[in-house]
Write a structure and sequence with these properties.
- The complex is a heterodimer of chains A (625) and B (695).
- Chain A is α+β, with helices and mostly antiparallel strands and 625 residues long.
- Among the domains of chain A are: 229 residues, no CATH class; 181 residues, no CATH class.
- In chain A, 28% of the residues lie in helices and 22% in strands.
- In chain A, the strands form seven sheets. Chain A has a seven-stranded antiparallel β-sheet. A five-stranded antiparallel β-sheet of chain A has the order 16-17-23-20-21, covered by helices on one side. In chain A, strands 10-11-12-13 form a four-stranded mixed β-sheet.
- In chain A, α1 packs across α6.
- Chain A starts with a strand and ends in an 18-residue tail after the last helix.
- The two termini of chain B are 29 Å apart.
- Chain B is α+β, with helices and mostly antiparallel strands.
- In chain B, the strands form nine sheets. In chain B, strands 13, 14, 15, 20, 23, 24, 31, 34 and 35 form a nine-stranded mixed β-sheet that branches. In chain B, strands 3-2-1-4-11-12 form a six-stranded mixed β-sheet, with helices on both faces.
- In chain B, α9 crosses α14.
- The chains are: A alpha+beta (625), B alpha+beta (695).
- Chains A and B meet through α1, α5, α6, α7 and α9 of A and α3, α7 and α12 of B.
Amino acid sequence: MPAQIIQADSTPFNTVAIDPVTLEVIENALRNARIEMDATLVRTAMSPGIREQGDAFPLIADSKGRMIVGQFGSYIGPFLDGFDGTVEEGDLIFLSDPYSVGGAISHSNDWLVLLPVFRNGRLVAYTSMFGHMSDIGGKVPGSMPIDATNIFQEGVRIPPVKIWKQGVYNADLIKLIMHQVRTPEWNIADLNALTAACRVASRRIVEMCERFGDDVYASATDMLLERNYRAMKHLVETSVSEEKVSFEDYICDDGMGYGPYKIKCTMWREDGRVILDFDGTDPQSKASINFFLNENMMKMFFGIYMIMVFDPQILFNDGFYDLIDVRIPAGSLLKPKFPSALSGRTHALGRLFDILGGLLGQGTPEFLNAAGFSSSPHLFYAGTDKDGKWFQLFQIGFGGIPARPMGDGPDGHSLWPGFTNVPNEFLERYFPLRIEVYETVADSGGAGLHRGGNGINMVYRFLEDGVIAIHDDRWFVPPWGVNGGEPGTRARKVLVKNDGTEIVLGNKLEDYEVEAGEQLKFITWGGGGWGDPLERDPALLAKELTQGLVTVEGSRRYGVVLVDGLVDEAATEQLRTEMRAARPEVLPTFNYGPDIETLRANCLAETGLPAPKQPVWHPTAKVAA
Amino acid sequence: MAGTTHIHLAGITMAYRLGVDVGGTFTDLLLLDQASGGFWRHKTPSTPHDSSVGILTGVDAICASAGITPADVEIFLHGTTVATNAVLEGKGARVGLVTTAGYRQIMQIARSFVPGGLAGWIVWPKPVPLAALEDTVEIVGRMDAQGNEIRPIDDADIRAALEKLKSQGIEALTISLVNAYLNGAHENRVAELAAEILPDVPMSLSHIVLPEMQEYERTLTTVANAAVRPIMRTYVRNLRTKLRDSGMAGSLSLLRSDGGLMSSEKAEEHPVSLLMSGPAGGVTGALWVGKNAGIRNILTLDVGGTSTDVALIENLEARRVRTTEVGHLAVRASALDVKTVGAGGGSIAYVPELTGALRVGPQSAGAIPGPVAYGKGGVLPTVTDANVVLGYLPESLLGGTFKLDRAGAKAAVQTIADKLGIGLMEAARGIIDIVNENMFGALRMISVQQGYDPRHFALMGFGGAGPLHVNAVARLMNSWPAISPVSPGVLCALGDATTQMRTETARSFSRRFSETGEAEVQAILSEMAAQTRAELVAEGIADSDVTSLFEIDVRYEGQAFEVPLSIDAETLTRDGLAGITARFDEEHRRLFTFNMDTAHELVNLRAVALGPLLDLKAPALPQGNGDPINAKLRDHELWADGAMAPAVIYDRAKLCAGDIIPGPAIVIEMDSTTLIEAGCTGAVDAVGNILITLA
């Protein structure tokens, strides 16, 4: 039963004509309101994940729940469809269960608040924001057990409930929830911050309605949606072919020894609409790497990639959703069945962007980027210090950005919007650890005319006994290069024991005990390369050698011979000639590196880890057609 | 305004202050007679290849018109964008950076932040670090997060690193080691060896430039300081020599980003404090105007050719922030809280094919080719062109030599009208509405978003085009009166001339209030106060003229955002630390609507020393009878409320105190034009400011 919306005044809005200037003014005001949401959140949140790293996402929707400003598309529609309750003035809805909102939030750590905005008794808008909580209870600190086999192990699950009900605060509810988590102070502050951000935006919307009139505001948001629809319709007609194109990529493993898992997407245009069909994607995993992908979110990803190039000032909204049809097989990795575990979903989320890039770029390779949107590496470190105080770190790392048509991929930067690293001096001051090394890994970016960004080597020295957990990917299947560019190198984690012995750790690891003094080398992937490496200016290699970004040996992948820091012109010419002769005339558009079987065969030797076993699915677990 | 009598007081021969603001197009000068408050203003073209040439030309001219010689100038006060431009244009010195082993790529990785949303990385051009990676070296030695040494440094290792930088030809040196904000001993040893190995290279040490946590921000700030030092040194020394040669023996001070003054010698050492010197001049000028007009709460709107700067003044105190943003860099140095938007007279209007939306800026026609109306080759429609089309900028300005090309402006704006399918005037008005809206957005960020109600503030428009937009923006903000200050075109120079000396020092503290004693805080503050007072005394200010203030940054433990609270020694003694936490709670509630039970953390301490504040009165205008008819130049027509309406053009120099100007009207002067909209009136106050209110 869909939600029941209670309004003192349920008069529908009149559609009125809006001049282009008013429309632009309202668009700007909405953009500013969204900036205000971010600013309010960052200043008042407390967990490092939100306040330092920016892991939170705002949204402003119209009275029907369609996103007018935001990043990941609106979940309000699916929420309202499934919410068996009322939406009233003075309510603030709170939830965290992905299965309650069709996967619009993708794991239980993301706490979401939704504020219906009323003016004179009439619903005019929704504001909403979700952010990643450092801990929500469950079997491990950080609440993202990579070895979970069902969602009940992943901490407290909050169905849609009301923190504020017609203006009355439900303190008992918050008390009950905070009792389930390891970091109640952070969560309370972060929840306050999310709420404050929504309230700020709701004030702005009410002000806009006062200034322009409710009908003008509502008509303007309709027009903004319509504008996106028209823009996207044009793009779809001109850049998506009726011929089917497919692209596939892999999640390396599931943390339980099985992998890789394939994600496949096929795209074509039919009757003026784009079909994105994930048929061919592997069935869901018994472990936690499933990613419950909301169809609307996928539409938004697609739209952003398409529209970005043409009018970057445009405000992304839901207006174009009717033009896209997303088909995800039930029971697949991207539409797992309740109560499947979801806490390792970040890898598939990132991988979708690589797939989207590969899919859209096939027709126009000059606009194609290499791969590298490959993961969102997490480290958890928790324990009790010498003074008996509980500590708990959750940190998001970064890798190499893929090489791009415009140039090299930046070294060690974030592909996620708005994310930043945490200052190491801050970490050292507030957590029992020391960051001994913080650098990028020479040669880790894929070779190419444009080099892929290098991954990061961050060496943590633990100063207290504790447990760690790691989530990362791209350790087995490398990030691919394009247009002649080579793949980037793979991620790697090494623990240096106090006696100097080194142990290669899995990239998906849970509840691993570490001792004070031990060091963890947390190494991330390098971005794929773009274009023919033999075309790269040799002088650039010589410069990057002095910068420590490539090595003498690594420069040979570009056919460049460096002697005493200088380019040996003759030797370079000769090496490049030899390399050209030894390779095919036409370079492949995609260079994935070795095939899966070869990767498996060499896995132990190359990565120090046993090869993942091919997942086997019980016939009843087969994906529903 | 020229012609004010200069009264010689017995024994005082040098009683003039000269404010000089160098902008991209014009150098503005303002000469103040300290005894009478009389002033002279002058505008001369800037000389970008060597701005001292333009300055000296202006100095000669303004002294001549006042009938004095440069020797009569006691204090030369200067706002400059030399440091700003060096950073923006990447023309800083080649900086060598010494870092802790393992941290060589600190500037390369930065904060890993990529701007621009979900797919922003595809089109982001990563800026080159201010200190090149090849000029960055590592040394062994390590402090922990409590400031204890856990690995010693090694002289031989340091020498090798410095020799390497020397061989690479660096022009400035930065030493920034991990956790040095707690203990600078390692940095000091590197500095000692550098003085020996690189004797002529200026040095900047992170624990001195910015003794605060966060290795990237501290390093960046120190590197930025090092990068602009050589340029600043050359600039200041050259200017000083030329001024001395012209006979000026008085002191030379520069305007800091935070609106205070610093001696030119100190500016050479610490140019990172000057990165927002330009915009700070306007805000300090607005403070002076506000004081004279009896208006204490002011929002400022400084509209230039390519951008607009806005700031908030509450109770005649401008808001300050701890971060100075220049281009893509956010440097940790105190600055007035000035927000900049890419909306100015030169902002270009366009209609993207895909969306058919009307966009204005951030691309700008700049000074060259400029707006179409200027006839210097510009072909794209700009905000200025829309103002010309609408009649807000009359074709012939005062002086008559410069005529605007209205036909050209119309043709350009017509292209927008055609794409939108609307009329010419509607399109022009649309461009103005949108650019006003962008300014409005920036003003909201510094007012509403900080918890201030704009209805309690006046809005002051200055800079070339501020008085043209101030009336309309005041309507959007509901901030009245809209003020067109006296001499809006040279307000920055006025600010340079009327502000006071300022210096400050900061220290990281990072401790809970519950673990902190009042006596300890008092002791640190007194020590910091003594240090900053001594700095001003060394500049020649009498100790009795120095005022000390303190600021304490407070947050709830675990937050990333600190609230700076200013306090004096007596209040601290009276109310104790509890008084501070209570004030923090109040401020936090105002900003964010809630308080928390969490412990309060005392993050940073700062001491500020201020020099004497000059009590300079603006000269009064002759009193009129309320009718501005004597100042009327001619009848005019302009676009108001959807139609052309009759209006009057006035000459500002002929207005009298008490004159009431009914809108729509235009008031013109040498370098600025004020628009009074229909439905509003402008009242001329006792000193010549025009205060616009709803009729």
